[in-house]
Design goal:
four-stranded mixed beta sheet; alpha+beta; six-stranded mixed beta sheet
């Protein structure tokens, strides 16, 4: 359909108000399962330590009547520890930007504070699941907290060439060695679960990346896919497994976008703590002009109560 000549159109008019929504839509992932399912407790030093212990192996324990006591040397507890590390993010906002009328937020600094804290929380989730040895740092080197990859060694299934981490003076001083990647199978899952059961672990859930969550959903188990329905009704196509019933307990399966896809973590939240030297803090930095400099900082460390309470299916394929 043609338009009449000289019709005044929006393309020619001036002064049309912009239609900018007063909301800001953010879809970046913010789920941090490990932090959400574990406790955070304060700590008062950059090196924090704790003790672990274990019972001796069960034995045939029978004595004769009136027999002399047979004293056995006691095994001392093992002292382990970890370091805190500093995670921060900074931003700089001009005085003019803070003063002007903005869509979606009243104050730019308040908005950036919330956004930055969420970003650091994601960083902490990512770090906790990585493979990094602990170090106290120096004037030129940032301190690092030993992460899950540097702790778990008792209940791990690794690919060819893979090796468990090494502790130095109670602190994981050498991270695990990654091995040749292999497909995540039901046999690997069962292997780690059985190792954990023998160690006394009580795994609550399996944390995997998106690719291996799909791989776990393909495990057949011993389920029979037979359904009975007395009348016609809407049906659902079930393409995901969120619970796996093992010989030694029920295991929930949960995806985590912030962990390494090559790792499958068998977790008991009671075995993990986040220790906090400095909680989230807003630190105003020295003002040198017409702008506000702000740092958001958190100083924290990872405490694994007893690494034998956790498990790892390592060196999984990622695609």
């Amino acid at each position: 359909m043609a338009i009449v000549t000289d019709t005044f159109l929006t393309f020619d008019a001036k002064g049309i108000r912009e239609q900018l929504s007063n909301t800001i839509s953010r879809i970046s992932p913010e789920d941090t399962p490990l932090q959400s399912n574990t406790k955070s407790t304060p700590v008062s030093g950059t090196l924090f330590e704790w003790q672990i212990d274990a019972l001796r192996a069960a034995a045939a324990n029978a004595r004769v009547q009136g027999g002399e006591a047979a004293f056995v040397a006691r095994t001392p507890t093992v002292r382990v520890g970890n370091y805190t590390q500093i995670s921060s993010d900074e931003f700089l906002i001009s005085g003019t930007l803070e003063a002007v009328d903005k869509a979606g937020r009243k104050g730019e600094e308040a908005y950036q504070l919330v956004k930055t804290a969420a970003q650091i929380k994601n960083d902490i989730e990512f770090i906790a699941h990585s493979n990094v040895a602990g170090t106290g740092g120096s004037s030129a080197v940032a301190p690092l907290t030993a992460t899950l990859g540097a702790w778990v060694k008792s209940n791990d299934s690794v690919g060819a060439g893979g090796a468990s981490p090494v502790y130095t003076s109670g602190v994981p001083g050498a991270a695990r060695t990654d091995g040749t990647q292999r497909a995540f199978t039901e046999a690997i899952l069962k292997e780690v679960v059985q190792l954990g059961y023998a160690s006394g672990a009580k795994f609550k859930y399996l944390s995997v990346g998106p690719f291996n969550k799909a791989a776990a959903s393909a495990f057949s188990g011993i389920a029979t896919q037979t359904y009975f329905q007395s009348a016609a009704k809407a049906t659902a196509i079930i393409g995901s497994a969120d619970v796996y019933v093992t010989e030694f307990g029920v295991l929930s399966i949960a995806p985590n976008l912030f962990q390494r896809e090559r790792d499958g973590w068998f977790l008991d939240p009671s075995m993990v703590k986040f220790r906090v030297l400095r909680p989230y803090q807003r630190v105003p930095l020295g003002k040198t002009g017409d702008a506000d400099k702000v740092m958001i900082v958190k100083e924290w460390g990872l405490q694994i109560e007893n690494e034998a309470g956790l498990g790892l299916a390592a060196d999984l394929t990622t695609s």
